[in-house]
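During the no-cost extension, the postdoctoral fellow (Dr. R.K.) reprocessed legacy sequence entries with the updated structure-token encoder. One reprocessed record is reproduced below for audit purposes.
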Amino acid sequence: MDCHLFIDEVGNSDLDHPDERYLSLTGIITKVDGHGKWITNEIEKLKSDLFGHNPPSRTIILHRKDILNRRGPFAVLKDTAKNIIWEERILDLIGRLPYIAITVVIDKHAHNEKYGVWKYDPYHYCMHNLMERYALWLNRHDLIGNVVIEPRYKKADKALKKSFAYVYANGTENIPASLFQKRLTSKELRFEQKQANVCGLQLVDLLAYPSQLIMRKKHEGQPISPTAFGTKIYDVLERKKFARHPTKLHIDGWGRKWLP
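Re-encoded structure tokens follow.
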């Protein structure tokens, strides 16, 4: 196996609740060696330096909500000087670690208004778009890979598992099943628990919400704070990490996909 695609989701498939209008899947593609030698080593060192990570006696898992709310080991970030160091170091890693990012966002209300009916569950729709981009990237580079995600709760896990299996077995409107079966190592998602300390999953957890948020604000013409930490993360993705057209180098349609 050559590559991993680590996925994190933001939102759910609820079609009615006004606070659940958006669903996104963000994936980062990295080669197996790159994950083992660079992503894991660098993130482990960062956690050791700043949060006392020292497995197996003390294992720290980077989780965006815990960091944001300064919970548990991340309470040290209430100290302004330590928070500055954290932000500088994690932004540096986000910019130089070896991965490529893809975010697919769906506005479920807009889709309902435009089409009236759903041909696919929102998870299916986002997964189809993410998997197309991953499989085509693997095919261009003559590589094979798997897909790794952290379980969240039964309904969401079931939806993602079903979506992935459907794509693998049936293909999409744009890509035949044979290409997915050639480039993916399994018809099954690989679920890894948080306590497994998979650094690729921790990295994509930090990227997924800022990526969706800024894409939404840009799409809707909302003001974006240039000093907000989430904006800084997105800016790094846009400059260095979003997948791009192989020759024209534009991001939209490749590293960023807005649905419908």
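The chain has a mean pLDDT of 95. The first helix runs from residue 32 to 51. The remaining legacy entries will be reprocessed before the final report is submitted.
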